[in-house]
């Protein structure tokens, strides 16, 4: 039972296919990749590329990858988000629901559930579970939730928690979740973030002249940083490494999960995994703080494929550090983020 409250929290994650069956994976990939903020080409071009090339080519391989990481309860990303929901609800003593940008449960389903099960709720705090801004992650989640909210005229106010990539409590949670791993002997720590196309970084640059144009742009103050994924992931890595006391030469950042022929932000994780052993790195730790829940991109792309690449290239030991998932410090941090948002004036 949850205490009666006029506020509810909605945790919004990316989503997964309903099952590992090829038709379900196809349906999910189509919804995901037809999103104009993920593949931002004109509609007809996107339709031809996604429906005619990418999805038919990728669906079976993707389904196999999902099969290899699927839990008996379902998709790890969904199950971990449900576990986070329960832990946060216990912590905050107010209703906490989950929703997904793609697949189920959809924002419409979740908002309807709140209206039906918690008719006293007047305020909803929506938390896109992305620490960093990207057009293809935070922005699409927030805009989609707002679109549904406005279209259906729900009887509550809705506030959205902004990217929290440098929030001290989030940084502390990531650092604490990593601490047991960095206390062991290791040669190097790689922060592997989900990549985005270079074009997305340029497109999000509100100044039109900063990102990837100014020398060492991520470290030069700019209004562009509010929407710069590259800047924000760099800051997270620097703050976490500082809190853990890891010297600068012992960690680096790279970007995984490229799709298509376009140039994505560099360095690429697979290339780094091939070159690190040649630079003398034999014991490697990999952390993926772009994700708050373990998912296909960590459990398969990093823990299986990435490990294989590193060991084949001459590495000795490879450890993937789990995401913050339901770590108590993360549950605490999320509660603080929600409470801070509740205290702001409704717009
Ligand atoms: C143009 C393609 C893609 C962009 C841009 C992109 C950005 C992006 N994605 C995440 C988080 C996740 N992505 C996940 C899976 C996934 N991502 C893409 C493509 C793009 N992502 C695809 C095609 C897939 C599906 C799987 C596959 O076929 O490889 C996941 C995992 C989902 C799961 O069910 O476990 C996450 C999480 C972020 C944060 C981001 C921008 C920064
Ligand atoms: Fe992705
Ligand atoms: Fe930038």
Major sheet strand order: 2-1-3-4
CATH architecture of the largest domain: 3-Layer(aba) Sandwich
Reported for the largest beta sheet, the result is: 4 strands, parallel
**Which CATH class of the largest domain is shown?**
Alpha Beta
Which regions have little confidence, pLDDT < 50, spanning 5+ residues?
none
Q: Rounded to an integer, what's the Rg over CA atoms?
A: 20 Å
**How many separate structural domains?**
2
**Percentage of β-strand residues:** 5-15%
Terminal CA distance reads: 30 Å
Structural class: alpha/beta
Shape: globular
So how many helices? 12
Which percent bin holds the helix content?
40-55%
Which quaternary structure do these chains form?
A: single chain
Mean pLDDT: 97
Look up the CATH topology of the largest domain: Rossmann fold
Ligands, deduplicated: the ligand C=CC1=C(C)c2cc3[nH]c(cc4nc(cc5[nH]c(cc1n2)c(C)c5CCC(=O)O)C(CCC(=O)O)=C4C)c(C)c3C=C, fe (ii) ion
Written as H for each helix and E for each strand, in order along the chain, the element string is EHHHEHEHEHEHHEHEHHEH
